[in-house]
Design goal:
single chain, mainly alpha, two-stranded antiparallel ribbon, 7 helices, 2 strands, elongated
Length: 185
């Protein structure tokens, strides 16, 4: 069945698949780099989480230790192309959280390094903040994650390998839309 909803939910142009693939790989690389830069510096992550002055102290340590591993997992899932839509949605939620935290720090007059690609923490009085560039960067990454959540089907994806039609599907299953639009990798 070829409904309008099916056409909107399933990319039919190779260009759409290329854009999805590029977004997935770029976001995956960003998450992987951010997580790997933080994972070996748990003290820096604690400083960064505390510097925002948002979380109750009881949550600072669990969040600080979990974030790098979550970022690495998101990066690996995106690079491999597994659970792309779910991973893109989680990515969008993470970027939205980062944007809110950075905007909150700026609005409250805090002078911190966000710790996005470093250990972060409070800045010295003469060190400049980079809130504007951090907010722009994270907003662009949020938009990329949202676009990827909307159009997750790309090339070089484990999802495409796992989503091939099989003997277990019936013609009625197509009414829910599938990712098999006749384009081959």
């Amino acid at each position: 069945m070829n409904t309008i909803a099916h056409r909107l939910s399933t990319p039919t142009q190779p260009t759409s698949r290329v854009v999805s693939t590029v977004l997935r790989l770029v976001l995956g690389a960003v998450w992987l780099a951010a997580g790997l830069l933080k994972v070996n510096d748990p003290d820096g992550m604690l400083r960064s989480a505390r510097a925002f002055r948002i979380l109750p102290e009881a949550l600072v340590q669990p969040v600080a230790y979990a974030v790098p591993f979550l970022e690495i997992a998101l990066g690996l899932l995106l690079i491999v192309g597994l659970a792309v839509r779910v991973t893109a949605i989680v990515s969008a939620l993470m970027f939205a959280t980062y944007i809110a935290a950075i905007a909150s720090a700026a609005a409250r007059g805090l002078r911190i390094d966000c710790g996005c690609f470093s250990s972060g923490g409070d800045l010295t009085a003469d060190a400049p903040t980079h809130y504007t560039s951090e907010l722009i960067r994270d907003s662009l990454l949020l938009a990329a994650a949202a676009l990827l959540a909307w159009r997750p089907a790309g090339y070089l994806s484990a999802d495409r390998l796992l989503d091939r039609p099989g003997d277990h599907e019936s013609p009625a299953d197509d009414r829910f839309g599938s990712d098999t639009d006749g384009l081959e990798d």
